[in-house]
Amino acid sequence: MALMKVKFDLKKRVKLAQFLWLMYWFSVMAGVLVFSMGLFFKIELRKRSEMMDNNESHFVPNLLIGVGLLACGINAMGGKICYDSLDPSKFSRWKPMLKPFLVSCVGFNCLLVLTALLCFLMRIPLQFTLSEGLKNALKFYKDTDTPGHCYMKRTLDQMQMEFRCCGNNNFRDWFEIQWVSNRYLDFSAKEVKDRIGSNVDGKYLMDAVPFSCCNPSSPRPCIQYQVTNNTAHYSYDHYTEDLNIWKRGCRDALISYYGGMMNTIGALVLLVTVLEVVVMIGLQYVNTSLSNLANPEDPESESEGWILEKTVKETFTDIMAKMKAMSKGNAVEEGAVEGVATES
After folding, report:
1. CA dist., res. 145 & res. 151, Å (int)
2. Would residue 167 be called left, alpha or beta, if left means φ above 0 and alpha means ψ between -120 and 50 degrees?
3. Nearest to 180 by CA among 132, 230, 224
4. Triad 25, 280, 19: Cα angle to 5°
């Protein structure tokens, strides 16, 4: 028994084909949108690649770009099929291709679901690549004269101001590295000697942060030096909420930014998947209703259309039986080849 059988006359078939033609072109635009979002995400990753581990993956944005282009091609072809279905003579040339086309649509919808799932899960690997990347980037902040790292200071300062963050995990990360270049230190000064001498690695460490960590909304002038020394500043307690530098770490800020972007893209891909399933089902109705015309020579005759020729269970059983037959056939062929090789 056919699944979800519907009776069609000429008027219903024409309306369905026209509606699907319009929906397919909406799907083409949706494919363009997916492509654009993938390209935008790839550019955003490239913009901050210096602050990411070298192992960051562009697989998901590349997949979005590929899926977007594929959606444009498949939906443009589906729109053409629906347009030609209004003329039985034109539609006849599409009949041999329709079954493989619908099968490819099922595969494409599975790819869309997988793409959406990867978008939602990308937050996990992004946490690791940002954690390592930012940790290394902070160490290069002072290397303004070193080729390959000379723009790291500007990049980090712009990021901290844009995302209102400080350090990797928090502002204390700056206390653990030397972020002032040696060329700007007076090594004859007692303070500099004491700081370098008190550190086993011979680095100039201090409880201070770059200017880009300062919160411009704070009414108090920025306290970026001796951040944890309450006695160095009047009416100051670094344990209170009055600390006028950003408390949020840049890793959390970037993960939130990219995670929100990927959740939006993932939701968009799921919506595109729903649209693709709708137009695929509609095309199946067009295909079966035209193939089952009571009088093929009379386009105005009534016909029946369905989603599946049999029930879901029967269809699944048939597919499994065909797969088993194919595997047995391959096993027989392999055995025959081995037998011939043994005889020779």
Report:
1. 9
2. left
3. 224
4. 45
Q: Do 23 and 278 form a contact (C-beta atoms < 8 A)?
A: yes
CA–CA dist 312, 296 (Å, integer): 28
Q: What is the pTM of this model?
A: 0.80
Separation CA 152–CA 140 (nearest Å): 6
Round to whole Å and give the CA distance between 66 and 39. 10
Q: How far apart are CA 180 and CA 158, in angstroms?
A: 17
Each of the 344 residues of the chain gets a pLDDT tens digit; together they read: 555 666 766 788 788 888 888 999 999 999 999 999 999 999 998 888 888 876 567 889 999 999 999 999 999 998 888 888 877 777 778 777 888 888 899 999 999 999 999 999 988 888 888 888 898 899 899 888 888 778 889 999 999 999 999 999 999 999 999 998 888 888 888 888 888 888 767 888 888 999 999 988 888 888 888 888 888 888 888 777 567 889 899 999 999 999 999 999 999 999 999 999 999 888 888 777 777 665 656 666 666 666 666 555 555 565 566 566 666 666 556 655 565 555 65
Q: Residue 141 is which amino acid?
A: Y
Q: What's the Rg (C-alpha) of the chain?
A: 32
**Secondary structure in 3-state letters for the chain:** CCECCEEECHHHHHHHHHHHHHHHHHHHHHHHHHHHHHHHHHHHHHHCHHHCCCCCCCHHHHHHHHHHHHHHHHHHHHHHHHHHCCCHHHHCCCHHHHHHHHHHHHHHHHHHHHHHHHHHHCHHHHHHHHHHHHHHHHHCCCCCCCCCCCCHHHHHHHHHHHHCCCCCCCHHHHHHCCCCCHHHCCCCCHHHHHHHHCCCCCCCCCCCCCHHHECCCCCCCCCCCCCCCHHHCCCCCCCCCCCCECCCCHHHHHHHHHHHHHHHHHHHHHHHHHHHHHHHHHHHHHHHHHHCCCCCCCCCCCEEECCECCCHHHHHHHHHHHHHHHHHHHHHHHHHHHHHHHHC
